[in-house]
Amino acid sequence: MNQTKTKELKKKLFDERSLLIEKLKGNDLSVDDSETPDPVDLAVRNYSKNVMLAVSENESRQLKLIDEALLRIDDDEYGLCQNCEKPIVAKRLEAIPWARYCLDCQELVERGMIDEDE
Ligand SMILES: [Zn+2]
């Protein structure tokens, strides 16, 4: 990978990273439970609380993947599948610059056939 490309890629990852951090900061998880709620209201509120939690979980996870990708750029390992060590196709990296696995391995991960190290 040439330097200009590396620079562009890093910028892309850093931009995405700061967006995520902003989003995570914006998630207000404090729900006021002090008033006596009626059950329907409570259910709705719990639901949105759970949705928000799930969202921040996804975002924290993505944040971690982005950090890993940045480390891999510095280690000259960027674009290699973390499972089979084959290069990840450029198209996939363009769509998901923080991709950790090639398509084949991603599928195995989704089927639970690869243990991801967290
Ligand atoms: Zn792979």
**What order do the helices and strands follow?**
HHHH
The gyration radius over C-alpha positions equals 19 Å
Which class do the helix and strand fractions yield?
mainly alpha
How much beta, percentage-wise? under 5%
**Sheet with the most strands?**
none
Taking the alpha carbons of the first and last residues, their distance comes to 27 Å
Helix content: 55-70%
What would you call the quaternary organization?
single chain
Q: Any low-confidence stretches, pLDDT <50, length ≥5?
A: none
- The helix count comes to 4
The small molecules bound here are: zinc ion
Mean pLDDT: 87
Count every beta strand, where a strand is a DSSP E run of 2 or more residues. 0
Question: How would the global form be characterised?
Answer: elongated
Index terms:
118 residues; mainly alpha; 4 helices; 0% strand; elongated; binds zinc ion
Explain this structure to me?
- This protein has about 120 residues and is mainly alpha-helical.
- Helices cover about 65% and strands about 0% of the residues.
- It contains four helices and no strands.
- It is elongated and about 60 Å long.
- The two termini are about 25 Å apart.
- The structure holds zinc ion (ZN).
- Zinc ion binds near residues 83, 101 and 105.
- Zinc ion binds near residues 83, 84, 86, 101 and 104.
